[in-house]
Amino acid sequence: MTDEFHKPTQFSGSKFESFQGGEDPAQISRVAHETAHALLNRVRESPETDIVDRLVAFTDEHGIDAVAELWSRANPRSLPGALWRIYLMRAMVRQDAEGTSYLYQRGTELATTIDPVVAGATAPTGPAEITALADQILRGLFQGDFAVALDRAAAFCRLSSLGCTSVADDVEPTAPDRASELTTRALRLSQTATEFVSCARLWRAGTLD
Known about the structure:
Layout lengths: L24 H21 L3 H8 L1 H5 L1 H8 L7 H17 L1 H14 L4 H5 L7 H16 L3 H26 L4 H29 L5
Helix pairs in contact: 2-8, 4-5, 5-6, 5-8, 6-8, 6-9, 8-9, 9-10
């Protein structure tokens, strides 16, 4: 991400890029993997509720930049890459709960797969429900089946992508710029869903590094 974040962080859904910097890429990668493994191992060995609560709400207090500096440049099919994308997904939901819930709900209305069941949001899904879903998915990384949490995140992304595409079709005649923005967002969400699925598969195989 090229913009410097300040607390509270505000950003658009298009800002899903790496921070720029002059640090040694090998050192950045090493720190990202070491901190991700250390954090996850510590919490999952002793998943105390108050600690998990603080981790889930960490970016509310410290901003998404605190997480981005550690993990945003990691390979998307890695443990730090997965953690970063889940935190970023939650931050975007909380920033615009109304908009994200609308797109997600539209996706569930059009879905012909079991994604609504896998994602697990309360239906109908409004701002409160989509915010709760994002918290549940992040919490699932620390308490519960890590791969299932990733599967839920992937389903969320696929449904939101479907909603974006549908709304883009609706607004294309009158707001082509908005339609283009939604189409780009849909593609990014679809790609992120694929990355979550890959991470879940690697976790189940014991090879998510």
